[in-house]
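2024-03-11 09:14:02 INFO worker-7 job=invfold-0412 stage=load source=structure_tokens
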């Protein structure tokens, strides 16, 4: 089965490229009968990203044991008989090979969804709090930070 005709903008380099420049699943077929795209990273950018992760892993300490807590969400990460439910992910600073830590798949996906941007995280939090009053928002966030991390 062929890949669908068309193009897509790479989520890493931002260049609009033909679908042939992206990776598609061999066996996952969409409702339209076409193969599904793995992600919106062009093959060239995906190679660079894979290389970064490979190099970051070389610098990383061993993965935490199953059952240990993710440092972000504080949920335990377990392995299942038939694969991984929430596998440990190598988090690194994009564009470099600097290892940041081992985190769960959900948290890694969340960081990727906001482009590893602290500004985007604050914007999402502001939206989530539904706070048009900036001073009130800052005070609420300050209180949450103190509740989570203490008043150090």
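2024-03-11 09:14:09 INFO worker-7 stage=emit residues=152
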């Amino acid at each position: 089965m062929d890949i669908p005709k068309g193009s897509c903008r790479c989520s890493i380099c931002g260049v609009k490229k033909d679908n042939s420049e992206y990776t598609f699943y061999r066996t996952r077929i969409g409702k339209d009968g076409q193969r599904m795209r793995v992600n919106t990273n062009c093959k060239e950018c995906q190679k660079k990203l894979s290389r970064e992760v490979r190099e970051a892993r070389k610098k990383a300490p061993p993965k935490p044991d199953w059952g240990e807590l993710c440092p972000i969400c504080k949920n335990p990460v377990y392995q299942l008989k038939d694969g991984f439910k929430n596998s440990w992910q190598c988090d690194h600073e994009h564009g470099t090979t600097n290892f940041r830590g081992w985190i769960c798949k959900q948290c890694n996906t969340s960081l990727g969804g906001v482009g590893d941007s602290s500004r985007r995280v604050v914007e999402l939090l502001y939206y989530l709090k539904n706070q048009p009053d900036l001073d009130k928002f800052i005070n609420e966030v300050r209180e949450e930070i103190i509740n989570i991390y203490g008043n150090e």
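2024-03-11 09:14:09 INFO worker-7 stage=report msg="The longest strand covers residues 22-29."
2024-03-11 09:14:10 INFO worker-7 job finished
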